[in-house]
Every structure is written in C-alpha cells, then in structure tokens.
Amino acid sequence: MRVLVTGAAGFIGSALSARLLARGDQVLGFDNLNDYYDPTLKQARLARLSPQPGFSFVKASLEDRAALESAFSAFKPQRVVNLAAQAGVRYSLENPHAYIDSNIVGFTNILEACRHGGVEHLVYASSSSVYGANRKLPFSVQDPVDHPVSLYAATKKANELMAHTYSHLFALPTTGLRFFTVYGPWGRPDMALFLFTRKILAGEP
Asked: What are residue 40's DSSP bridge partners?
C-alpha cells in the first residue's frame, strides 16, 4: 500500500512511518522541518527512516499547494495520514498566523488533494484540546466541543468540521484522532514529561 504521511519527521509521524515500512508499505514522508522545536531532532528521526526501502521524503509545507499536489501526483497515495500541523497551545498566543497557515490553509490543501487524487481514506490528527472548557469526565466523542479555549483548539475543531463536510460532499472517508498528551522515546522536547525531567535532573523546582 502507498501511504503519504505528513509530519513524518515528527514524533508520531516518524513512529508511524517506521511501523508502515515494517509491514511492507511504501511511505512518502512530507514535512517542512520547521523550527518550532530543534530541527536536529526531526532530522535525526528522518535519518532512521531514510535508509529503509520504500521510504521517500519531500521537504515542504502543507500550505505550499503546488508542492503538495506534485507529491500526490508523483506518489499517487492510496491512504493519507495527516499529522503535520502547527502544534502547541501557548505558541498560538504568540504566532496565530502560523496556525491559520498550517492548520487551516494546509488542511484545505490536504482535503482537496485527497479528493482529486482518489484517496481511499484520510486519517488526520485532531486534538484533545477541542474539549476546551468541557468539565465532564471522562471525555467522550459524544461530548459537545463548541467552546475551544485556544486558537490551536479552534483550528483542530475546524479541521473536524471540514473533514466531515468533505466526507459528506465527496464520499471521502475520513477519521480524526483526538490525541491527548503523547510521549515516549524520541518525543517532543516541549512536552511536560521532558520539561519536568530536565528540571528534576537539574535540581530545579
């Protein structure tokens, strides 16, 4: 199977790509290697994937429609997993345009490329942040998520609505995954697990 994975240099994307390659799929990784956190970590993740047969890589942003369409045209993916996005809740207060460019414009480009490329199924990353001010526990996919409390969450909720619309209008199967805090080896250094561990090792509060 040919699978296009956006955000392939990210924590989840690189782990997923490795699993897909291990089961014999062809994987095209798509990532802009931005500097939201140290790009050398992203490059190190890619270095583990690059030697494997069946893996190829395109360095570009989702909002670069021409680059995305070219990748779809050349690779002809059967399935797409969209994990690329501008991440982080707090950063959306400092740089809101990055979230609109990547998470709204970029996601529109993904939907259009899947629609016109005959993709069988799109899986995309949403976020647990869509639950916003919801106080009911445990969270459920049946819960209303109409009160996001960050721009990041608002863009992810928008992605869910956009995907739903494309599924309805164009019979494009889509599945959104509301990730909670995901951590582990090769994980994002801005996550609480790593921030806490570094402070513990340094003897800081």
From this structure: none
